[in-house]
Amino acid sequence: MSDESRPAPADGPSGGPAEARTAAVIPAAGRGVRLGPGAPKALRTLGGTPMLIHAVRALAASRAVSLVVVVAPPDGAVEVKSLLAAHALPERTDFVVVPGGASRQESVRLGLDALPPEYDVVLVHDAARPLVPVDTVDAVIEAVRDGAPAVVPALPPSDTVKEVTPAAAPGAPEPVVATPDRSRLRAVQTPQGFDRQVLARAHAEVTENVTDDASMVEQLGLTVVVVPGHEEAFKVTRPLDLVLAEAVLARRRLNDGF
Ligand code: C5P
Question: Where is this site: Transition state stabilizer (predicted)?
Answer without folding.
Answer: 34, 41
